[in-house]
Amino acid sequence: MAACLQLNAKPFSPLLSPNPVSTRTRKSGRISCSAASPSKRHTITLLPGDGIGPEVISVARNVLNLAASIEGIEFKYQELPVGGAALDLTGVPLPEETLLAAKQSDAVLLGAIGGYKWDKNEKHLKPETGLLKLREGLKVFANLRPATVLPQLVDASTLKREVAEGVDLMVVRELTGGIYFGKPRGFGTNENGEEIGFNTEVYAAYEIDRIARVAFETARKRKGKLCSVDKANVLEASMFWRKRIMAIALEYPDVELSHMYVDNAAMQLVRDPKQFDTIVTNNIFGDILSDEASMITGSIGMLPSASLGESGPGLFEPIHGSAPDIAGQDKANPLATILSAAMLLKYGLGEENAAKRIEAAVLDTLNKGFRTGDIYSAGTKLVGCKEMGEEVLKSVDSLVLSPV
Ligand SMILES: NC(=O)c1ccc[n+]([C@@H]2O[C@H](COP(=O)([O-])OP(=O)(O)OC[C@H]3O[C@@H](n4cnc5c(N)ncnc54)[C@H](O)[C@@H]3O)[C@@H](O)[C@H]2O)c1
Question: How far is the CA of 319 from the centre of ligand 1 (A)?
Fold first, then answer.
């Protein structure tokens, strides 16, 4: 089954929605995994990548497997190199085999790419180029990044409790256009003979219209509020962005639309983040604002993302990078990748029940007090990446879906 952009799917509201799973313990032997007779089969491409990528993917794969098998779903995995790992093996950051396998699968789960080793490579040989090409190759233009402050982690936020408590927002970022891809780009010399570097922020109407529709649909199923972030007071590309957003808004009279300049949005996100429900913005502003939003939640290690196109497989990945400073030390927080696996089930495969099992298990694990270093606070239990994964597995195994 090829995944596609499910505009009618419920928006991903990770974790804070009323717990869909009861805490009743499954009595041993009463409810067994139905892996023996799977009714649904999907092919998943795993791209562990670099740094902490392989650590978090290995944990997330186990969680994905268990949640899926309970729901009678069977996965066939293919694991391929991307980023620095691919550079070392094949000399390029996105081998053709990797892209082809990704395109032919039902969903792609990525760890992270990058590291000191390849930092000085020429641009076309940087791990990051591999990731951009992957997104481009899969034509995933809509990036959904939820940022939810969990009650259990309010104190891990850098903001005051009263500011952080209850934050639940979604950043819808345009992913395949704008300044990261615009041409002309490059290096040269100006009229004074000085060296210059330049890029182009450019958007065509169809690129804005399709991301706008994703954002309006997402907002419609959340609290019905959409804030479009741009820099229309200075940039022509942003003036055009605003014009198209307002044109598409006519199709969604039930959604309350507002506009905000990006500098103000950056400020408002730390001043009063609860004012936001759904944010839609271009590639570069979305990159920056979603990282800022992540810190409100306590740790970049908690946040998943989904990148979706009009057809073909979706790309699911934590928003963090390869964290070379903690790679190989079993210190990484695997929850962002585990929650990305939940998004994969929900948005990529339409397997909502299996997704709910994972979301609930993550909440349960946090409720029990388990914390990796990035979200640790006094009185909680410090665990490593693997142990956190094992605790989530225990919760997936011991929780049963509440009767509807
Ligand atoms: N999507 C991606 O693969 C992606 C995204 C961002 C950065 N990168 C790459 O990652 C490398 C490192 O970049 P960076 O340091 O700017 O960002 P980063 O996200 O890798 O790390 C930033 C900080 O957050 C911590 N951190 C990140 N993920 C964590 C987790 N799961 N658990 C606990 N702590 C975590 C790190 O230890 C570090 O202190 C660079 O090569 C960069 O290009 C890749």
Answer: 8
The DSSP bridge pattern shows strands 142-148 and 168-174 to be antiparallel
Q: Tell which atom from ligand 1 comes closest to the C-alpha of 116.
A: 41
pTM of the model: 0.83
For the chain, the structural domain boundaries read 39-146+302-403, 154-298
CATH superfamily of the 39-146+302-403 domain: Isopropylmalate Dehydrogenase (3.40.718.10)
Residue of the CA atom closest to atom 42 of ligand 1: 114
The residues annotated as belonging to the active site are 180, 231, 263, 287, 291
Q: What are the residue ranges of helices labelled H in 95-138?
A: 96-104, 127-138
Nearest-angstrom CA–CA distance, 332 and 350: 28
Q: What does residue 316 show for φ and ψ, rounded to 5 degrees? A: -120, 130
Q: Does domain 154-298 fall into CATH 3.30.2000.10?
A: no
Number of helices (H), then strands (E), in the chain? 12, 16
pLDDT of residue 180: 93
Residue among 189, 143, 192, 148 at smallest CA distance from 319: 143
Q: State pLDDT tens for residues 163-174.
A: 999 999 999 999
Local structure of residue 38 (DSSP, 8 states): -
